[in-house]
DNA sequence: CGAGATTTTGAAACCATTCAAGCGAGGTGG
DNA sequence: CCACCTCGCTTGAATGGTTTCAAAATCTCG
């Protein structure tokens, strides 16, 4: 059975170098995170773990973060990848239902829930934004369900590449920090199928894979059409 | 291609017989819905439709409700079934991303979002409850993802039956108001596979199906074990 | 009872998985 | 510097579970 193996040797977040951040302004879907502090994580470092107390809200400043759960049968379900500007770690109860790890060196802004709750109680706009963030997560989860429900391996992989390209804001040249196993656990495929599918897309000329984690989108329209 | 065909003839909600409801109290995950009104829907009636303005929040008083989306490829994805006491129709933007229909005669409490937002702005506990409801939906969606990710048809159907039994609060005798197509669209299987799987479970003595929508759980432990 | 819809069953086809082996880059030690 | 090892990725062949297409059986309701 698969188990994620991460070297935890260099997985220690910078402890002392925390510095408050001044948010000049914050839009509709942004919180006044000047409450929070930025923490730095090394590649593979755990930001929080499944079952831990959930007393913070997180926002990616730079780098990539993956959130995942270990299911009862031992499988790993990657719930999502988070890029700069995106929030994660929003939970209902007192404990995290998922774990979060830095895919590469990452900076993450961390806000205490208590501080946020206090602020939300005083400011309706903050409460409304919190609510909106939760709902956005809900929508992403529903998209995930739709993706898993009846898509072929090809459609899943193509959709994944387009989604990543859009969120990373690149036109063609994708630098993906996650492994094939990460993709497989997100798309609910096996790593062999992911690899095979990528090879097939390359053979069809839709993409090019100079290095395994560097994927160039050669024909976006065909990829988009593939996802319908 | 499948298309849901519902007779919309008798699908008109009672128009005038709206009456305010007095909520004696409301717990942690309940809203003071005395703001709302109870509306009655006939079998198959649409409570709201995909794309419509989302200016209300809904709570099932009696009966069953299904929420679903029509995907780009024309398939129908049932997002969930909602029983008495459960909320649905929580959306982020201005429009519903899903449709909701009554599976049978159903009573639904309806609250205007504007009223709720006003209340939430004044009362922190209401805002917090709204937030919690959103997160609960998020968790359910994540469970849905986990279910779809690597479960066999057998595990899905068994898990579905147990979930329904638990939520309907029955020990053995399940009265399911939804069709095989509804189950299939929720579990992401075909109706043939759902039917075959139920027959198989019956052959193994785990369940009994006196009538197609009446399922008796004969061996809960074996069913639970099946889902791990 | 009869007509239409829903559900069940059967057989063949398909797609992803599984098991197994080969490839290639990065790192260590001789 | 090269041999060697490891780890992640790729490729191949066989298996198996779900889907698809087809048809029979059952239920519901006028």
Automatic annotation (TrEMBL), chains A, B:
The UniProt keyword set, sorted, is:
DNA-binding, Transcription, Transcription regulation
Q: Which residues form the Cyclic nucleotide-binding domain?
A: 40-89
> Which residue intervals define the domain HTH crp-type in the entry?
151-221
Q: Which Gene3D superfamilies match?
A: Jelly Rolls, Winged helix-like DNA-binding domain superfamily/Winged helix DNA-binding domain
As given in the record, the signal peptide range reads: none
InterPro entries in UniProt: cNMP-bd_dom (IPR000595), cNMP-bd_dom_sf (IPR018490), Env_Response_Regulators (IPR050397), HTH_CRP (IPR012318), RmlC-like_jellyroll (IPR014710), WH-like_DNA-bd_sf (IPR036388), WH_DNA-bd_sf (IPR036390)
Q: Name one GO molecular function term.
A: DNA binding
Record SUPFAM superfamilies: cAMP-binding domain-like, Winged helix' DNA-binding domain
Q: Which GO terms describe its cellular component?
A: cytosol
Write down the PROSITE patterns for this protein, in alphabetical order. CNMP_BINDING_3 (PS50042), HTH_CRP_2 (PS51063)
Kindly give the PANTHER family that the UniProt entry links to this protein: CRP FAMILY TRANSCRIPTIONAL REGULATORY PROTEIN (PTHR24567), FUMARATE AND NITRATE REDUCTION REGULATORY PROTEIN (PTHR24567:SF75)
Name under which the protein is recorded: Transcriptional regulator
